[in-house]
Specification:
Largest sheet: 2 strands, antiparallel
Shape: globular
Number of strands: 2
Structural class: mainly alpha
Helix content: over 70%
Strand order of the largest sheet: 1-2
Order of helices and strands: HHEHHHE
Distance between the termini: 14 Å
Strand content: 5-15%
Radius of gyration: 14 Å
Length: about 120
C-alpha cells in the first residue's frame, strides 16, 4: 500500500515539489553563505519524492547554529512553504482518493518550516 501511495504521490505532487526544492537547493548552493539551506532543500526534495513510510526526526544534538538558521529560514522561506503546503493540501482533501496525499502534504510542513537539525528516516 505504501508503494502505491508513493507512486500516486510522485505522479500528482511529488515530482513538482521535488523539482521546486531542488531548484531552491541549487540557488542556495550558488551563494556560499546559504549552503546549509541548500543541503536542507535537497533533503526535503528527496523526502518530497517518496514521503510514505518515512518520518522526520529532530536531532537533539543540533546546536545553536541550527536554531539561528531555522529562525532565518522560517522568516525568509519557511512560513511561505508551510502556507503553500496547507493551500495545496486543501484540494487534495476534497477528493476521497486525495486524502492520504493531503495528509502527506501536511506531514511535510514541519520539515519545510524548520529544516535544519532534522533527519528523515524510514519507519522500518
Amino acid at each position: 500500500m505504501r508503494t502505491l501511495l508513493n507512486v500516486i504521490w510522485l505522479v500528482f505532487a511529488g515530482i513538482w515539489l521535488a523539482i521546486g526544492y531542488a531548484v531552491a537547493g541549487i540557488i542556495c548552493c550558488i551563494l556560499i553563505i546559504t549552503i546549509p539551506f541548500g543541503i536542507a532543500s535537497f533533503r526535503i526534495a528527496a523526502y518530497a519524492l517518496w514521503p510514505f513510510g518515512r518520518t522526520v526526526v529532530r536531532d537533539p544534538e543540533a546546536g545553536v547554529f541550527s536554531l539561528i538558521g531555522n529562525i532565518i529560514w522560517c522568516v525568509v522561506a519557511g512560513i511561505w512553504l508551510a502556507i503553500g503546503h496547507v493551500l495545496t493540501s486543501i484540494p487534495l482533501f476534497i477528493s476521497i482518493i486525495g486524502i492520504p496525499l493531503g495528509i502527506a502534504n501536511i506531514k511535510m510542513i514541519p520539515v519545510s518550516l524548520l529544516p535544519l537539525g532534522a533527519r528523515i528516516e524510514d519507519n522500518d
